[in-house]
Amino acid sequence: MYAMFLLKPPIDFDEAAYLAAYPEIAQAKADRIFDTGWQHFSVYGWREGRWRGLKPLANPHNGLPVPSPHLRYRIHGAVEPMDLCRVGNFNANLISEVIRTRMGSTENLRVLDFGCGCGNVSSALAFMNPGLTVYGTDIDEEAIRWCRDNIGSVVHSVANSALPPLPFEANFFDFIYCVSVFTHLPEDMQFAWLDELKRVLKPGGYAWATFHGENHVQGNFAQYREQWENRGFVYDTRFPTEGLPEFYQTTLHHPRYIEREWSKHLHVVEIKKMACGQGDFAHDTALLHKAD
């Protein structure tokens, strides 16, 4: 029974939180007495009542709670908590600068994080800019429940359906951003959501979205180079994400496609290569504008 128990921790066991709460166990792991914190807990910690000393990890940038391991993995692709916090803070800084540059200020604005996940960007953005009223929407109802329970003091979070509409009146937001949303949608859904973002965006407002550009047309996606060059759009269904709908796959865009097709919905102001994120897998970005 213990052998089976040791193989895989339950979905909500937070290895990082356990080691942070008990430095002596972290040291025992470093000394190779235990391979993992879970190994210690499954043999000794549960009998010692060590779950009573566990507290949610805090984001070092703002002190807000960090999501549970399985949400971190679903949203970020890794359970390591501090990298999620670092990326959220990095993107929030980037978006803050875009808002200040285009809107002239971060005061008295309504901002929407479309596809907010567990709020790692929206909570950081709200913490950095108290003058913003930040909203978040996502199809992941579990992530939205977590946001409401844990970061509801700084972000207004609501679940949305796979297709429009959003639960907001027309011309509601001054600025909308989408980090890694259009990177996963089929073409018809992409167009439907561009129209919906236009509806809820105020005249004169801006939308900012990331997309998989040329640096992603390699490795598992190198076979799509010709399609990406010629048609400008690739939708690959080989790598679904557990816990998310079947349509949530991997999408690649050519900048020419963005300029040609997205401009039918909102004016494309500028496209920047590998402007969001760091390293080889950074996303390209598109800044969009709704005419007055």
User: Span from first to last CA?
Assistant: 66 Å
Name the structural class: alpha/beta
CATH fold name of the largest domain? Rossmann fold
Main sheet overview: 7 strands, mixed
H/E series: HHHHHHEHEHEEHEHEEHEE
**Average pLDDT, to the nearest integer?**
92
Helical residue percent?
Answer: 25-40%
The CATH top-level class label of the largest domain: Alpha Beta
Number of DSSP strand runs: 9
Tally of discrete structural domains: 2
Lateral strand order in the biggest sheet: 3-2-1-4-5-9-8
Which term fits the overall shape?
globular
- In the CATH hierarchy, the architecture of the largest domain is 3-Layer(aba) Sandwich
Instruction: Please give the radius of gyration in angstroms.
Output: 21 Å
Fourth-tier CATH superfamily name of the largest domain = Vaccinia Virus protein VP39
Helical run tally: 11
Tell me the fraction of residues in β-strands, as a range: 15-25%
- Low-confidence segments: 1-6
Question: Could you explain the architecture of this structure?
Answer:
With 292 residues, this protein is α/β, with parallel strands linked by helices. It has two domains: 2-53, no CATH class; 69-289, Vaccinia Virus protein VP39 (Rossmann fold, 3-Layer(aba) Sandwich), CATH 3.40.50.150. Helix content is 36%, strand content 21%. The protein is built from eleven helices and nine strands. It has helices spanning 2-7, 15-21, 23-30, 37-45, 69-76, 81-103, 122-128, 141-150, 187-200, 225-230, 255-261, and strands at residues 109-114, 132-138, 155-159, 173-178, 201-211, 233-236, 250-253, 267-276, 283-289. The strands form two sheets. Strands 3-2-1-4-5-9-8 form a seven-stranded mixed beta sheet, sandwiched between helices. α2 (15-21) crosses α3 and α6 crosses α7. The longest helix has 23 residues, at 81-103. It is globular and about 65 Å long. The chain starts with a helix and ends with a strand. The relative contact order is 0.10.
